[in-house]
Every structure is written in structure tokens, then in C-alpha cells.
């Protein structure tokens, strides 16, 4: 019995070593797979937003212009400009006096004009331009 028991033990030991080796290999494969999955997720979370951002920037629509289906709203720009000039900047023929201007805008007309001309000379944004349709834009 002892010799058969020894044979059984050696077979069992060999079987256990083999089983341990297979289990170890499976665990190592699982760990490698988990690490690869983690690396893949980390790479995806970094690179996918960058790729999407670059794609959206390349497809960016040009700024400005009319949008199809939108109606044009006539804003009476010229008439409103003329009305402001007639109300405040025609000197003695103005609808409102200098005192009215000072009370409303907290400065006299000369100071306002000085500021307006200084801004127009230093920043092109505040000069009157012609828009894309060919109409005169807003007055400064």
C-alpha cells in the first residue's frame, strides 16, 4: 500500500504542479489582459476627445452671413442715425438743448465728440463700414 500510495502521491503532486502552473498562467494572462484594458481605456480617454475637437475645428462653419430660413428685419439704421443727429448734434437746430444732453449723458457735447473721434481714430471696429449686402452699417 505504501508503494501504491507513493505512486499516487507523485501523480497527485505532478497533477497539482500542472494545475498550479495552468492556474498561474491563467492569472498572469488575466492580469495582462486587465492591464491592457486599463491602458486602452486610458489612451482612449486622452486621445478620443482630442480627435473629436480637431475634427470639429476643421468642420467649423464660417462666421457671419445670412442663415437660410431666417427673415430679414429692417432696422431703419439710416433713419435712426438721422434722428440722433437731429435730436442732439445739430447745434441750435437740435431738438434737445445742450443741457438736456448733459443731463442724459452726464457730459457735454464737445467731450462726447472728442471721445468719439479718439475711439474712431484708434480702433477700426468703431468706424462705419459697408456690410456684406452693400448697405451702410451702424453709425459710430
Short characterization:
The chain is an all-alpha fold and 140 residues long. It contains four helices and no strands. The chain has two domains: 1-56; 77-126, no CATH class.
Return the string of H and E elements: HHHH
Radius of gyration: 41 Å
Strand proportion, as a percent range, falls in under 5%
Q: Strand tally, please?
A: 0
Count of alpha/pi helices: 4
| Helix/strand class | mainly alpha
**How many structural units, i.e. domains?**
2
Proportion in helices: 55-70%
Q: What distance separates the N and C termini?
A: 112 Å
Let me know the largest β-sheet.
none
Uncertain ranges: none
Record keyword descriptors for this entry.
2 domains; 65% helix; mainly alpha
Write up this protein.
The protein has 140 residues and is mainly alpha-helical. It folds into 2 domains: 1-56; 77-126, no CATH class. 65% of the residues lie in helices and 0% in strands. The chain contains 4 helices and no strands. It has helices spanning 2-58, 77-88, 98-105, 109-122. The radius of gyration is 41 Å and the shape is rod-shaped. 0% of the residues are buried.
